[in-house]
UniProtKB/TrEMBL annotation:
GO terms for molecular function: protein-lysine N-methyltransferase activity. It is found in: Cytoplasm. GO terms for cellular component: cytoplasm; ribosome. This is Ribosomal protein L11 methyltransferase. It comes from Ligilactobacillus ruminis (strain ATCC 27782 / RF3) (Lactobacillus ruminis).
Length: 297
């Protein structure tokens, strides 16, 4: 089978939005090339041969350029393609993805790799990057994982908003959460999440996956809510998260570009959240906040 490799030249600031555009158009996973260490980067993805990618690339370019209307810098917004056979596609993923210790206790391992934990408390998450929305190597995902590792004490009920690959739900359960509700508006994300749950059978029974737009219509109460999504989408989620959290519950947000951090902090405080921690990795921010408990001002 032949695959078409598609490359988008954009910026770190716009990268999450570009990934969302690619996935909505049927991309089969993504990887990042930011070896220059600045704000410019390439996002590489693959489409099956049945997809008219050359024609699609013109539409994708316009959509990437259109991100400027939402306050994101799309950079060069160049889109170009080339054809690879199936072996080349598989080799591309294997070349770039290897076991990565992303936090003190969590290591993400591609499904084809043999890996032996280096310590008794190390938790291994198996992922298939070829079908997944995230691999744990992007700064926004790392920040969210660090937030989970800090927040979870054991026995929590967690809601994962915009689950993508399911990595945050899997991580939460490996860290001690008793159950997770994983929501995503995209059916392809749900399929990707299901693939990765099968790779982590011990956590699979604890995670319920469903299609849902943010927390619209959700009346479940949780101890912890985590959302690794764009800041523009976090804004309408904030009041929903406040309503769905138990008193004292923790809200972890990530995917916040630097010039949106103050906005999210303000929106959280205006809703009644107490800011506990603000973390930064490259140009990305994560904010951990909690819903005040009874008697807390």
């Amino acid at each position: 089978m032949e695959w078409t490799e598609l490359v988008v030249e954009t910026t770190l600031e716009a990268s999450d939005a570009v990934v969302e555009i690619l996935m909505q158009n049927g991309a089969g996973g993504v990887r990042f090339d930011d070896e220059n260490g600045n704000d410019d980067l390439k996002i590489i993805t693959y489409f099956p041969e049945s997809k008219p990618v050359v024609e699609l690339s013109r539409d994708l370019k316009q959509k990437v350029l259109g991100l400027a209307e939402f306050g994101l810098n799309p950079g060069k917004a160049n889109v170009f393609v080339k054809t690879n056979d199936d072996a080349s596609w598989v080799d591309a993923w294997k070349k770039y993805y290897h076991p990565v210790r992303v936090t003190r206790y969590l290591t993400i391992v591609p499904s084809w790799e043999e890996y032996v934990p280096q310590s008794a408390d190390e938790q291994v998450i198996l992922l298939d990057p070829g079908k997944a929305f995230g691999t744990g190597t992007h700064p926004t995902t790392k920040l969210a994982l660090l937030g989970l590792e800090s927040a979870i004490r054991g026995g929590e009920k967690m809601i994962d908003v915009g689950t993508g690959s399911g990595v945050l739900s899997i991580a939460a359960c490996k860290l001690g959460a008793k159950e997770a509700l994983a929501y995503d508006v995209d059916d392809e994300a749900i399929k990707a999440c299901d693939v990765n749950l099968k790779l982590n059978p011990e956590e699979r029974s604890k995670i319920h996956v469903a299609t849902n737009d943010l927390l619209n219509g959700v009346d479940e109460k949780a101890d912890l809510i985590c959302a690794n999504i764009l800041a523009e989408i976090i804004v309408p989620l904030i009041p929903q998260a406040f309503n769905c959290l138990n008193d004292g519950g923790i809200f972890i947000t990530s995917g916040i570009i630097s010039d949106k951090a103050d906005l999210i902090e303000e929106k959280l405080q205006n809703e009644g959240f107490v800011i506990d921690q603000i973390s930064r990795m490259k140009d990305w921010f994560s904010i951990v906040a909690h819903k005040p408990g009874e008697g807390e001002e």
